[in-house]
Amino acid sequence: MKVIAINGSPHKEGNTYHALSLVGNGLRAHGIDMEIIHIGNKAIRGCMACGKCRENKDEKCSITTDTVNKCIQSMKAADGLILACPVHYSGVPGTMKSFLDRAFYVAGSNGGLFRQKIATALVAVRRTGGSATLDSLYHFLAYSEMILATSNYWNVIHGRLPGEVIKDEEGVQIMEVLADNMAWLLKMREQTKITLPAPTMAPKVITNFVR
């Protein structure tokens, strides 16, 4: 089994990376591979709301000048997903938000590519804004009908300089427990694929508040 982790930090080996490494070490101890895809330093523009991904049903965003389409296929092939980023103004960094808007809209518009995968999110922060940012990441997972792995507290770890998060003892434990819980869910899902099939995807009903 394999987990894809999306690193939305501008810094390839900043505190978001170190937090992901803690989770990755835990997953590998359970025999589960994890690959970190670093997108936080890429030039990724936001969704243009062109609707081509829904119209073409080709599992692709119409914007082809960046790494989003390649990442979508890696995420589709994985058994589990982790969304990870630092905190910018108590929220998700712009590049990460643009990436998620497009990747998850393509996935949802093409039959739910990420549906029923085991998923989680984590945040690295200096001081505050971690819970708000984590909540924003969770929105993508919940809307996509993913199975959420949790820990014994919010998945937030604290530090300023690269590597400082390792000094956050509670944060380190949160990442370790998260890895154990995610591994358990991944194995449970794998063992029940045949004996307990996932619910059939319901056709989406869309309404608005204008009558």
Short synopsis of the structure:
With 211 residues, the protein is an alpha/beta fold. It has helices at residues 15-29, 52-56, 68-77, 94-109, 130-143, 169-192, and strands at 2-7, 33-38, 80-86, 118-125, 147-148, 156-158. Helix 1 packs across helix 6 (169-192) and helix 3 (68-77) packs across helix 4.
Notable features of this structure?
6-stranded parallel β-sheet, alpha/beta, single chain, 211 residues, Rossmann fold
Describe the structure.
The protein has 211 residues and is α/β, with parallel strands linked by helices. It has a single domain, classed as Rossmann fold (3-Layer(aba) Sandwich). It is built from 6 helices and 6 strands. The chain has helices at 15-29, 52-56, 68-77, 94-109, 130-143, 169-192; strands at residues 2-7, 33-38, 80-86, 118-125, 147-148, 156-158. Strands 1, 2, 3, 4, 5 and 6 form a 6-stranded parallel beta sheet that branches. α5 (130-143) links the parallel β4 and β5. The longest helix has 24 residues, at 169-192. It is globular and about 50 Å long. The mean pLDDT is 97.
Q: Could you tell me the strand content as a percent range?
A: 15-25%
Here the CATH topology equals Rossmann fold
Task: Note the overall shape.
Answer: globular
- Give the count of structural domains: 1
What portion of residues is helical? 25-40%
Number of helices: 6
Do you know the CATH architecture? 3-Layer(aba) Sandwich
The CATH homology group name: Flavodoxin domain
Q: Report how far the terminal alpha carbons are from each other.
A: 48 Å
Low-confidence stretches: none
